[in-house]
Amino acid sequence: MALFDLPLDQLRSYRPSFPAPDDFDEFWAKTLAEAREHELDARFEPVDTGLTGVQVLDVTFSGFGGHPVKGWLILPAGAGEPLPVVVEYIGYGGGRGLPHMHLLWASAGFAHFVMDSRGQGSGGWAEGGTADPVGSGPAYPGFMTRGIEDPHDYYYRRLMTDAVRAVEAARSHPLVDAARTAVAGVSQGGGLTLAVGGLVPDLAAIAPDVPFLCDFPRAISLTDRMPYREIGGYLQARRADPAKVLRTLSYFDGVHFAARGTAPALFSTALEDQTCPPSTVFGAFNAYAGEDKSIEVYDFNGHEGGGPYQQAIQLRWLPGKLRAGRDA
């Protein structure tokens, strides 16, 4: 696929004009306060995986509404003192999968917490184990339009709340150093990374790769690729609802979370990415409030982005950020 979005020099200065709702911060403060009315109840059960270089713990914690959310905590074998932790969020449609799919960060000496995505991982590329017990009104197949007529009912209110609670669950383990917490993810995982970066004020670093859920008005009008196209498919049938839909989406836009994030940040984008167009990623990057930020650009790649090359950059970048928490 040839380049289809803005030229790179324009991307570097692009800023969306989609304002955050006046009650954005109040909405999220209330949402998280309601979630915290439920005990976190984080449980860690050892799992025999046959892996000798890591210790694997099967995690269950209380997310949005007190609903049980699954995860993995993967530790270097023999860890005896608190470690910096990378909390990872999964791409669209996938679940936490199997532990041996997640060996990178423990191999680098970090604790690694992998959050399952509620309701996902049944027809995608990695199995999930977390139900979403909340129903919704009319929706297009997928997750993008579930409850989209009201921000209180929207699917991503639940998933983003789970993502914040996952940080709290990871930090509750005695072999995790809470002061040295990073969050990371690719695509949907990158969008969740930005949300958590804007909602959790004391992170040591964030690493959103080719992030999804950014600059919704531009994304849904620029690309016809799934999952953004789910919103267009919904609006094909419900022609009177665009303003209502965009209002809901404004509470979940990575651009608005980025404007509230301050931790050191390493973004990535790819200029041939039609799934998460580069202008939507640069919209979030340019809005990011933290001064310590950088973005890797992959000129001839699509939604795979940098893949292992980006991981190699993260492996060089992240240790310095986690060595002494926010003061690194």
From TrEMBL:
Q: Which InterPro entries match?
A: AB_hydrolase_fold, AXE1_dom, CE7
GO process annotations (BP): polysaccharide metabolic process
Show the active-site residues: S187, D273, H303
Report the GO molecular function annotations: carboxylic ester hydrolase activity
Q: Where is the Acetyl xylan esterase domain?
A: 1-318
Q: Where on this chain does substrate bind? A: Y92
Query: Which Pfam families does the UniProt entry name for this protein?
Result: AXE1
Q: Which residues form a coiled coil?
A: none
Q: Which PANTHER family does this one have?
A: CEPHALOSPORIN-C DEACETYLASE
> Protein name, please?
Cephalosporin-C deacetylase
Can you name the source organism?
Streptomyces indicus
| Upper lineage | Bacteria, Bacillati, Actinomycetota, Actinomycetes, Kitasatosporales
